[in-house]
Amino acid sequence: MSLLVVGSVGIDTIETPFGRVTDVLGGSSTYIAIAASYFVTPIKLVGVVGGDFPKEYFDFLESRDIDLEGLQVIKSGKTFRWGGRYLYDLNTRDTLFTDLNVFEHFNPVIPESYRKTTYVCLGNIDPVLQRRVLEQIERPRLVVGDTMNFWIKGKNAELRETLKLMDVLVINEAEARQLTNEPNLIKAARTIMMLGPRVVIIKKGEHGALLVTESTIFVAPAYPLENINDPTGAGDAFAGGFIGWIAKMDDFSDESLKRAVIHGSTLASFCVERFSLERFKDLTYLEILDRFREFRELSKFDEAITV
Amino acid sequence: MSLLVVGSVGIDTIETPFGRVTDVLGGSSTYIAIAASYFVTPIKLVGVVGGDFPKEYFDFLESRDIDLEGLQVIKSGKTFRWGGRYLYDLNTRDTLFTDLNVFEHFNPVIPESYRKTTYVCLGNIDPVLQRRVLEQIERPRLVVGDTMNFWIKGKNAELRETLKLMDVLVINEAEARQLTNEPNLIKAARTIMMLGPRVVIIKKGEHGALLVTESTIFVAPAYPLENINDPTGAGDAFAGGFIGWIAKMDDFSDESLKRAVIHGSTLASFCVERFSLERFKDLTYLEILDRFREFRELSKFDEAITV
């Protein structure tokens, strides 16, 4: 099966209580594509960078078998840059700067060779652009999308139009509440399902994830990491692991969706171990399988024979 | 096996977005004892009330086979009263009033018939009083305790002394972080284990609970309730379900502790369905067994045959 990923490609500066890195590879589509590349290749990437995008980052993406035909390079422009600082508990972050640069006028153009893609993952970009991507693809089998508070507030009507075209919405806890005005997460998920997506996955960071479909509710734990260096991209790595697994298996039954959520959680847990995408430089599929199995042990319990 | 529970017994006034109740039964030991009473009886209750404590509340406690010999009644005094208001998302609450009344000079005296108790649950009271209870009991097999921000801040040294005597600490997420100055919950649990308890259970409210022992980590989901009326006492009902199960089975292996955490979660999930302790007026053991099984389905997933 084939997977197309659209989203930002950026250069990040990140500060956490455990260190600081400058000009590292970032962006939602980057994290999604690299996480998904462990399950299905090549990944068709759609995005935009400037003439300053380092050769080593192109090389790294290609080393993960990511097809860059859809990555526009605007030689005269600069790549999207973002700077953020995480506070002591890693749950709160301050944005230090956002320089949209070439991303400001991004117009996703889907190459001819990408148009028959079966699976699509819409990273967190303007919902109008997300829709424009879908309009260029011939009936995909499954569309997974993400969004954020900025669009929920600033482009609510447009987002609602795009939601109608999504099969699966992957959204974080605070944003699910914001989108629906509903504090109870199960009710929030059910409200979102009335807006279009038939599957809702709520990412809860250190508390794991919640999958809600018409016929099931599944609670996935987070992996109990003692050393988290950088939470950047964890949500995107989750989405990538999720859609990568679904695309690999070509099965979206409830049971398969549950496994996909655990694969998403697995990729997210590796992502945060090091800064930027560093962990993916040596992460192997065998390590992913091992951690998937560890996830089973984490939440498994048996019934006792009661007296 | 026998179980002794000590803590507050009170009369509550509670406001939530879903209603308001005045002068209802409350208190940490009440919730613990009633939840535990589904697994082991009689429960030996230690606490204090005033002459105003309604007969119907005595009757309700006795109907759950709770032994009230250790419940001091100070005829000339008034029962501890607490008022609280929960905000829109039920995660934040304002205390409207706290009238300690007879609870201010509470001195737990353990009746002779209670002294050979095998299991002890120390509800959230002054750590000095928790220790005074333990001093009057002949070598219990397992001591479970709770505490709160008020004691972590105001009686830190005393709390640390009492922690040395606890086998299991049941504590909420924010308080685990506060006690240890450690934002990472797994590290916080390990730090607490160096203070005395060999088992730490971190309650995460709507996100479930985390069990950490020397040899295991277990992540328990919360039951995905769509209608929560009143979160009061959920943490105490959790502790009661937990210790009740342990006392029933007389087994504190890792596997038994995991099941006990799920039983705690089960009792907490019933507790919040109605105001005060109302849900326990008709809750049956069969309903508990059914929900325990539902918990298994919530977090269960299988490995797929990968290609």
Describe the fold and architecture.
Two copies of one chain form a homodimer. Chain A contains ten helices and 14 strands. In chain A, helix 1 runs parallel beside helix 8 (234-249) and helix 9 crosses helix 10. The first copy, chain A, starts with a strand and ends in an 8-residue tail after the last helix. Chain A has helices spanning 28-36, 55-63, 127-135, 149-154, 156-163, 173-180, 185-193, 234-249, 254-271, 285-299; strands at 3-6, 10-16, 19-26, 43-50, 66-67, 71-74, 80-86, 93-99, 119-122, 142-146, 168-172, 199-203, 209-212, 217-220. In chain A, 35% of the residues lie in helices and 24% in strands. The interface between A and B is large, with 45 and 45 residues.
CATH topology (level 3) name of chain A = UDP-N-acetylmuramoyl-L-alanine:D-glutamate ligase
State the share of residues found in helices of chain A, binned by percent: 25-40%
Low-confidence parts of chain A: none
Shape category of chain A: globular
